């Protein structure tokens, strides 16, 4: 049996979502590791972008900032933040990866405040580029540990749009057609969204995880369909590349 | 509950201002202390170029603290370490916030959070794209730009954006007001004495910020000749008429990263973050690194000087 930790599992699953030829906008940490892994395995023609202006680098080392010089190592273009967002707005970017302090059943994300907005209990950074990316990229993916504090009924602040109130509410407010949350990858399973209601639903359970784990770690009611898969474990090849080439210093995979 | 607009948005007012800006090629070199004294007043609205911990004008930010500027407005488009420095000096009382209090993968700044959680700050929410487009609208001489992000969210609700209808398709869009800062600080790789600037690597929003701001102070790694600029005119990101002051500051982005030259000093930034956990320790840290230093050079020397910079150069080039 292959041994791996949760972080390695989540990165591997995230990497597998990125087909060859896709364009992905990533941040630092897990998303960046996933994009690097995809580029070194199944998707050599993956175009990686960073919101601060880096386009199509051949990543050698994990950046600390989405604007640092690692994001333009052997890149094809170094540009402006406006141009990156304009590329998203023009429909060029297939995927983005986001995180947040809270997520609800429609994939709306909070990274602004916990508590009352005017005098918050905790102030987080705010949208950064997250709102733009989730509004404008075709498919939004979230990679996050799953627990009841994070997967909540009502988020304190809608920083970044998921499916808003479900159904066709994204289009109603003017967000681009056919965009929105695509998958949520956690340490328990992989989730998608119901085609009509746009509520989060289980797609696959990780090996060893149970439906009770899902329920115990989600405040809202997760849709559990009759049929769901078991997540395919990371292969030995994926793990070797992840450990030796993507994150040899265990900056990300060591966090598990 | 929309947020406030902190700056002028009437583009005719701004056109009249820019008409009167001096457009002669004159030597604008000065010192960081002098430039901040002359161009940044209490209450002004400040925009900072670069990307938080990348290509930041540290020398000018330190001067803001040393000269005890107060009640500034501040635009926080991924302002990480720059926001942290200004928060440490309690220099601003209003903020256009797209990304504040955090330092990306490094974690969150306790001291900046305390300021944002105090309720004493006027904050208007934006996304990074929205702020970039606000600068762009100003650089284009417009009073707003239509955008397709922020719609349907609390970020929109607490911003000062509005909903408009496209006059051609009838589709709903957001409209973000132009942002014309009073003063901008931008650090660049090369500039001539007139303020013509070249930047290597990502531009972030600095081309638009320079065109949008009433006054621009440039710090540059190196002053080059006007001939050098004219050899490759396609490389000029900021032209002279935008610029009011030019200060040569080698290693001026320290402890931030300067693309192609040196990497960030993560140990120093981590020390700053850790010092914030204890008030006395934090005060001592700020005194040692900012308030007791006569200039940026002294700060750099205290933190390893050229020897440290040689290490950071190697790190930048993955050696």
Q: Helices, strands, pairings?
A:
The complex is a heterodimer of chains A (256) and B (319).
Chain A: H1 6-16, E1 23-25, H2 30-40, E2 47-49, E3 54-55, E4 77-78, H3 81-89, E5 95-98, E6 102-103, E7 109-110, E8 113-114, E9 122-123, H4 130-136, E10 139-143, H5 169-173, E11 180-185, E12 189-193, E13 200-205, H6 211-216, E14 229-230, H7 236-246
Parallel strand pairs in A: 1-2, 1-5, 5-10, 10-11, 13-14
Antiparallel strand pairs in A: 3-4, 6-7, 8-9, 11-12, 12-13
Chain B: H1 11-19, H2 32-39, E1 45-48, H3 58-66, E2 72-76, H4 81-88, E3 92-97, H5 110-117, E4 122-125, H6 128-139, E5 144-147, H7 154-157, E6 162-165, E7 172-177, E8 183-191, E9 197-198, H8 206-212, E10 215-223, H9 226-231, E11 236-238, E12 245-248, H10 266-275, H11 279-291, H12 296-302, H13 305-316
Parallel strand pairs in B: 1-2, 1-8, 2-3, 3-4, 8-10, 10-12
Antiparallel strand pairs in B: 5-7, 6-7, 8-9, 9-11
Helix pairs in contact in B: 2-3, 3-4, 6-8
Compact overview of the structure:
The complex is a heterodimer of chains A (256) and B (319). Chain A is an alpha/beta fold.
Describe this structure in words.
The complex is a heterodimer of chains A (256) and B (319). Chain A has 256 residues and is α/β, with parallel strands linked by helices. Chain A has two domains: 117 residues, Glutaconate Coenzyme A-transferase, CATH 3.40.1080.10; 130 residues, Glutaconate Coenzyme A-transferase, CATH 3.40.1080. In chain A, 23% of the residues lie in helices and 18% in strands. Chain A has seven helices and 14 strands. In chain A, the strands form four sheets. In chain A, strands 2-1-5-10-11-12-13-14 form an eight-stranded mixed sheet, sandwiched between helices. The model of chain A has no long low-confidence stretch (mean pLDDT 96). With 319 residues, chain B is α/β, with parallel strands linked by helices. Chain B is 35% helix and 19% strand. In chain B, the strands form two sheets. In chain B, strands 1, 2, 3, 4, 8, 9, 10, 11 and 12 form a nine-stranded mixed sheet that branches. The longest helix of chain B is centred in the C-terminal third of the chain and has 13 residues. The mean pLDDT of chain B is 97. Chains A and B meet through helix 3, strand 9, helix 4 and helix 5 of A and helix 5, helix 6 and strand 7 of B.
């Amino acid at each position: 049996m292959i041994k791996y930790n949760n972080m390695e599992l989540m990165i591997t699953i995230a990497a597998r979502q990125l087909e060859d030829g896709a364009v992905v906008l990533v941040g630092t940490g897990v998303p960046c590791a996933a994009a690097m892994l995809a580029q070194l395995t199944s998707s050599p023609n993956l175009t990686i972008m960073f919101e601060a202006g880096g386009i199509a680098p051949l990543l050698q080392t994990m950046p600390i900032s989405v604007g640092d010089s690692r994001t333009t190592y052997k890149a094809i273009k170094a540009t402006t933040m406006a141009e990156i967002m304009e590329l998203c707005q023009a429909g060029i970017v297939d995927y983005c990866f986001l995180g947040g302090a809270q997520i609800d059943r429609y994939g709306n994300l909070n990274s602004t405040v916990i508590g009352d907005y005017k005098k918050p209990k905790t102030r987080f950074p705010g949208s950064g580029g997250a709102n733009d990316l989730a509004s404008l990229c075709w498919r939004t993916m979230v990679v996050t540990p799953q627990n009841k504090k994070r997967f909540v009924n009502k988020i304190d602040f809608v920083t970044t749009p998921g499916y808003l109130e479900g159904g066709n509410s994204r289009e109603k407010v003017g967000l681009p057609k056919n965009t929105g949350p695509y998958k949520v990858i956690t340490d328990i399973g992989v989730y998608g969204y119901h085609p009509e209601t746009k509520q989060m639903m289980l797609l696959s359970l990780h090996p060893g995880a149970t439906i009770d784990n899902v329920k115990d770690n989600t405040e809202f009611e997760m849709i559990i369909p009759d049929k769901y898969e078991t997540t395919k474990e990371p292969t030995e090849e994926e793990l070797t590349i992840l450990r030796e080439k993507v994150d040899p210093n265990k900056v990300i995979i060591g966090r598990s | 509950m929309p947020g406030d607009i902190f700056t002028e948005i009437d583009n005719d007012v701004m056109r009249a201002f820019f008409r009167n800006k001096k457009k002669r090629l004159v030597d604008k070199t000065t010192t960081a202390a002098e430039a901040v004294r002359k161009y940044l007043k209490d209450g002004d609205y400040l925009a900072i170029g670069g990307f938080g911990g990348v290509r930041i004008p540290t020398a000018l930010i330190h001067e803001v603290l040393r000269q005890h500027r107060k009640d500034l407005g501040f635009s926080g488009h991924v302002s990480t370490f720059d926001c942290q420095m200004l928060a440490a000096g309690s220099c601003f009382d209003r903020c256009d916030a797209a990304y504040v209090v955090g330092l990306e993968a490094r974690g969150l700044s306790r001291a900046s959070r305390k300021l944002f959680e105090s309720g004493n700050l006027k904050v208007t929410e934006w996304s990074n794209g929205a702020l970039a487009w606000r600068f762009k609208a100003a650089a284009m001489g417009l009073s707003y730009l239509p955008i397709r992000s922020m719609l349907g969210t609390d970020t929109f609700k607490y911003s000062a954006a509005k909903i408009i209808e496209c006059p051609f398709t009838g589709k709903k869009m957001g409209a973000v007001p132009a942002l014309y800062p009073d003063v901008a600080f931008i650090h660049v790789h090369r500039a001539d004495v007139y303020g013509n600037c070249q930047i290597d690597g990502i531009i972030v929003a600095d081309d638009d910020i320079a065109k949008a701001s009433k006054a621009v102070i440039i710090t540059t790694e190196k002053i080059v000749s006007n001939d050098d600029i004219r050899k490759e005119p396609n490389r000029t990101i900021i032209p002279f008429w935008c610029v009011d002051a030019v200060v040569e500051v080698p290693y001026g982005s320290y402890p931030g990263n300067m693309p192609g030259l040196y990497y960030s000093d993560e140990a120093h930034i981590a020390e700053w973050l850790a010092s914030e956990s204890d008030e006395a320790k934090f005060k001592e840290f700020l005194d040692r690194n900012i308030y007791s230093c006569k200039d940026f050079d002294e700060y750099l020397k205290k933190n390893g000087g050229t020897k440290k910079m040689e290490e950071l150069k190697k790190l930048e080039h993955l050696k």
